[in-house]
Task: inverse folding
């Protein structure tokens, strides 16, 4: 467990426990007891009894929080250790944690929350025993009571999180762009998949979804078809684009691999574990975002729970990834049995090469520069002209998969005992063949209609996304069009000028005193006078430097760029890709990073007088701002935060205008 998690999970309840112990000791202090006088709110027995109860309550709840955190850590460590034995043990351990961890998480939240309420209420009672009820005491009590009210609300709210904690590990629906095909739509595909399932002794999927983009995969999670039905049960995803470039044996090996996840012991893992685990990270992220929007006291009570959940996920994640790789290699063996090891090895190499070759035509399609009613046919026509595929770069890649982590392709081929020779490479890199394309089409009653419907649906999404994107660009471009004049404040100029005058006056005073006292000039006196004169010159030069900077605006922020007397040309905002801000004492530095290939302007003033520093190797210009800035001709005060926001908005607007001009 990292230091931050340790601090939240154990440091917070420990601090609350010791603070509650200190509160319990304070009850016996003599100065707490006061004699009741007229006009005073003195000590009351009720307040004293309340403080005793609250102090002991703070100790009790903080101890409960420590016990709950410790039990969660022990449960997680033992479960992970058990999960490393086998996949079956992993499922059993995760199931146990799924049942117990939500109760522990709510227990930690409630315990620390109530401990905070106890220690704060104690201080309210302590203020009551201090004496005269002054206006300050009343305001302080009201403020603390408001904090306690928000904490009580948070604690009560946390008690209702139990149901959500159970939902924390519920499977999430997979959002898929595709179409579910029945046996009427694809009789040959269904017949063939049943044959492959029987050959590999696997479960026949309940649904087959055809799509365009993602690779082959199976899932037991519910599938929500975009603008379509919600499918439950086991689903096989069949991508038309990839299948069009692979022969029957290669596709059989890939489907055999995927159906291998629905055979033997892997069936339980896939059906009952993978879906639950896949939704865990999203749920934890949701909780983390919910905590981030809370106040700091609420985060103090909620952060230990969040860090427990995140630590639990990280501990299981490494073990789950290890078993995922074992499962993938076992599924590879199933795919090899269903077809052949050579066919599966060739499909692995060819699949990665197809990913690279798909990039260019798909980019044209998503940018609305590829007009087609059948994207699969267009892809085939485009790639057929490209000749052989480059499969050499595919060996170290990991194939993309929606739910699993695959080992590198080279490792998978080595496990298949298939030599990486010229025969395999030649087979995997062969050009697109008409026979493969026509075989894929024969699996469906009307492949053209299915591909056209999928293409039309995706084109409609692309068009809608483009319209929304254009509207957003137009909205950004309409803002930040007026010029903003930015000037430096004279604060440092007057400071340096006063220091220069004081140094010169000090040197004159020392010289006058030495003459008045008829003191003979010695080495130490000369050093003092010389040092003061030198300091006066340095501060005088600094004041002159600041004067040259503040006598005219530092720069003008326009719709196109940053214009300054210190720059040879405007710094174009559309060429800025990132902005950062940092401060050192009273100096603020704004870093603007320009895009690769852009030639920025040069600085036209000397080093002592410049506020712009260019660092070409980092593609960065640094704007140094000493002592704050002013805006407009009237030189109104402008905070650094306002300047940063203005720069960010002007950069976004300039980028939006450039994108609109290029579209």
Result:
């Amino acid at each position: 467990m990292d230091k931050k998690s340790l601090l939240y999970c154990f440091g917070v309840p420990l601090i609350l426990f010791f603070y509650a112990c200190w509160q319990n000791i304070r009850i016996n202090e003599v100065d707490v007891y006061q004699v009741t006088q007229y006009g005073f709110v003195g000590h009351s027995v009720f307040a004293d009894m309340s403080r005793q109860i609250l102090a002991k309550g703070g100790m009790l709840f903080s101890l409960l929080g420590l016990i709950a955190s410790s039990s969660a850590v022990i449960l997680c460590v033992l479960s992970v250790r058990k999960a490393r034995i086998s996949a079956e043990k992993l499922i059993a351990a995760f199931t146990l944690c799924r049942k117990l961890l939500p109760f522990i998480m709510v227990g930690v939240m409630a315990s620390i929350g109530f401990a905070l309420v106890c220690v704060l209420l104690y201080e309210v009672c302590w203020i009551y025993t201090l004496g005269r009820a002054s206006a300050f005491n009343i305001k302080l009590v009201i403020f603390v009571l408001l904090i306690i009210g928000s904490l009580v609300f948070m604690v009560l709210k946390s008690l209702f999180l139990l149901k959500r904690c159970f939902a924390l590990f519920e499977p999430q629906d997979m959002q898929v762009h595709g179409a579910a095909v029945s046996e009427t739509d694809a009789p040959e595909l269904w017949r063939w998949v049943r044959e492959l399932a029987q050959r590999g002794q696997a479960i026949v999927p309940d649904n087959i979804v055809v799509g365009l983009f993602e690779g082959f995969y199976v899932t037991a999670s519910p599938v929500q078809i975009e603008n379509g039905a919600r499918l439950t049960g086991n689903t096989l995803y069949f991508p038309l684009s990839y299948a069009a470039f692979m022969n029957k044996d290669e596709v059989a090996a890939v489907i055999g691999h995927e159906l291998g996840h629905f055979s033997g012991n892997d069936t339980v893992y896939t059906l009952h574990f993978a879906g639950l685990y896949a939704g865990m990270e999203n749920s934890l992220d949701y909780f983390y975002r919910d905590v981030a929007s809370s106040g700091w006291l609420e985060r103090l009570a909620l952060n230990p729970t969040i860090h427990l959940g995140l630590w639990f996920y990280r501990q299981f994640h490494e073990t789950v990834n290890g078993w995922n790789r074992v499962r993938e290699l076992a599924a590879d063996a199933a795919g090899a049995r269903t077809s052949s090891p050579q066919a599966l090895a060739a499909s692995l190499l060819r699949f990665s090469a197809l990913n690279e070759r798909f990039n260019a035509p798909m980019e044209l399609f998503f940018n609305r520069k590829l007009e087609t009613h059948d994207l699969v046919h267009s892809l085939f026509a485009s790639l057929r002209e490209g000749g052989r595929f480059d499969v050499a770069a595919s060996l170290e890649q990991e194939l993309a998969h929606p739910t699993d982590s695959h080992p590198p392709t080279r490792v998978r081929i080595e496990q298949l005992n298939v030599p990486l020779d010229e025969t395999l490479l030649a087979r995997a890199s062969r050009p697109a063949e008409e026979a493969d394309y026509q075989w894929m089409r024969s699996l469906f009653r009307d492949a053209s209609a299915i591909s056209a419907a999928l293409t039309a649906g995706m084109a409609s999404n692309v068009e809608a996304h483009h319209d929304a994107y254009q509207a957003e660009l137009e909205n950004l471009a309409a803002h930040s069009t007026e010029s903003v004049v930015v000037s430096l404040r004279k604060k440092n100029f007057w400071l340096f000028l006063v220091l220069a005058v004081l140094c010169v006056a000090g040197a004159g005073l020392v010289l006058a005193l030495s003459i008045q006292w008829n003191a003979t000039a010695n080495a130490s006196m000369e050093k003092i006078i010389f040092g003061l004169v030198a300091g006066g010159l340095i501060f005088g030069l600094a004041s002159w430097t600041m004067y040259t900077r503040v006598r005219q605006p530092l720069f003008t922020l326009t719709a196109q760029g940053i214009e300054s007397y210190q720059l040879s040309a405007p710094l174009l905002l559309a060429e800025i890709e990132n902005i950062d801000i940092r401060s050192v004492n009273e100096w603020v530095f704004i870093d603007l990073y320009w895009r690769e290939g852009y030639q920025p302007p040069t600085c036209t003033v000397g080093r002592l007088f410049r506020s712009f520093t260019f660092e070409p190797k980092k593609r960065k210009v640094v704007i140094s701002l000493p002592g704050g800035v002013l805006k407009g001709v009237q030189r109104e005060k402008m905070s650094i935060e306002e300047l940063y926001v203005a720069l960010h908005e002007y950069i976004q607007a300039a980028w939006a205008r450039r994108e609109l001009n290029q579209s």
In short: Residues 29-43 have pLDDT under 50 and may be disordered. The two ends are 50 Å apart (CA to CA).
